[in-house]
Amino acid sequence: MAKYGIYGSHTPETCPIYIRKFARVFVEIAELDPSHLASAYGILEIEARYHSALEHTFLWIVEAEDPHLIEAFAIDTGLASFNMLEIVPVHTFDETVDRLKEAHKL
């Protein structure tokens, strides 16, 4: 398993604060059964979800099997219908420090 950051942004014109159908997408995602996420999309855990309303951006951290399945999740749930998304592998600070220590024999 790996951790991925889902970075998203949308325009003020498509913001869920103002557009009911996009607000519903977030509500429906929040109500998904975690076992469904694991079986259908290989998302084992959603560790964090941060949103900046005035910046119209968000960052979710997930533990998942495959970034392509995260992409399918974003499409199937409608998250990608009004957001530009980036799915990138991420590491904790401690994991990065451990990798640096090993690489540089520190």
Question: What's this model, at a glance?
Answer:
This protein is an alpha+beta fold and 106 residues long.
Task: Give a description of the structure.
By secondary structure, this protein is of the alpha+beta class. 40% of the residues lie in helices and 30% in strands. The protein is built from 4 helices and 4 strands, in the order βααββαβα. It has helices at 20-30, 34-41, 67-77, 93-104, and strands spanning 2-9, 43-52, 57-64, 84-89. It has a 4-stranded antiparallel β-sheet. Strand 2 (43-52) and strand 3 form a beta hairpin. The longest helix has 12 residues, at 93-104. The radius of gyration is 16 Å and the shape is globular. 12% of the residues are buried.
Work out the helicity level. 25-40%
Largest sheet: 4 strands, antiparallel
Task: Kindly name the structural category.
Answer: alpha+beta
Unreliably modeled segments: none
Radius of gyration: 16 Å
Mean pLDDT: 97
Question: How are the strands ordered across the major sheet?
Answer: 2-3-1-4
> How many H/I helices?
4
Helix/strand order, N-terminal first:
EHHEEHEH
Strand content is: 25-35%
Distance between the termini: 27 Å
Shape: globular
How many beta-strand elements?
A: 4
